[in-house]
Specification:
This protein is mainly alpha-helical. Helices cover about 50% and strands about 5% of the residues. It has helices spanning about 10-25, 60-70, 75-85, 100-110, 135-145, 160-170, 175-180, 185-200, 205, 215-225; strands spanning about 30, 45-50, 115-120, 125-130.
Length: about 220
């Protein structure tokens, strides 16, 4: 890891906010309102705060506070836009989570996953946060690769929920191909084919299956529709 994200990748900000909403759902803090008799779509259903108990993570708690205190509930798609500052409504700009990448990096520095360096980019110096141990990144990449190759199970509901979310959001953030770059050509083609199979699933159908996490599928719907 070079210690910084690509200057040209503008998908990561929204992807990170999607990650945070999914994590809050996994921790039982938020859910979607009921679909009702008319079966409202995932993208039209509002996010509801189930519990405002602190998560122990500053940014998750900040996002949860916004969700709890908003006077009118918003959809998952709206929250991704609000938290990333991509809103035209000046009255809702205060919902933006600022400096998320930098704060995540500092959090990982405190945990010993990253370190801090100064790097020269011709006209300016920039603080970067390279990995302290590249094995951490390689283990994560291997888990993603195995999920769509040797350990492929076809049914997303039998996959580890965080790994499933990671695959979807890595694709939405335009970084999934980086994880597959070291593979042989036939492995790469198979991995991308199976990611495509996941992307082709209908989130509305998947969200109705037993024990499905509706926030997860609403986030998926936001990025794939």
């Amino acid at each position: 890891m070079k210690g910084y994200t690509s200057f040209w990748n503008d998908c990561i900000s929204a992807g990170l906010r999607g990650c945070m909403l999914i994590e809050l759902a996994f921790r039982g803090r938020i859910t979607l309102e009921a679909g009702g008799m008319r079966r409202k779509s995932l993208l039209s259903r509002k996010v509801i705060c189930k519990s405002d108990a602190p998560t122990g993570d500053v940014m998750l708690d900040e996002a949860l506070k916004h969700i709890k205190e908003t006077p009118t509930p918003e959809t998952v798609q709206s929250w991704i836009e609000l938290l990333s500052g991509e809103t035209w409504n000046p009255l809702k700009l205060h919902f933006q989570l600022r400096n998320v990448r930098e704060r995540l990096a500092k959090n990982l520095v405190e945990k010993g996953v990253l370190t801090t360096e100064k790097q020269n980019f011709l006209l300016f110096d920039m603080t970067t946060h390279p990995l302290t141990n590249n094995n951490i990144k390689q283990r994560l990449i291997k888990k993603v690769q195995e999920a769509v190759l040797d350990k492929w199970v076809k049914d997303p509901h039998r996959m580890d929920k965080r790994l499933l979310a990671l695959i979807y959001l890595a694709h939405s953030s335009d970084v999934i191909e980086n994880a597959f770059a070291p593979l042989l050509d036939d492995q790469y083609d198979l991995a991308m084919k199976r990611v495509r199979q996941l992307l082709d699933l209908d989130p509305e159908v998947e969200a109705m299956k037993p024990n499905a996490n509706k926030i997860l599928w609403a986030v998926v719907s936001t990025f794939t529709k």
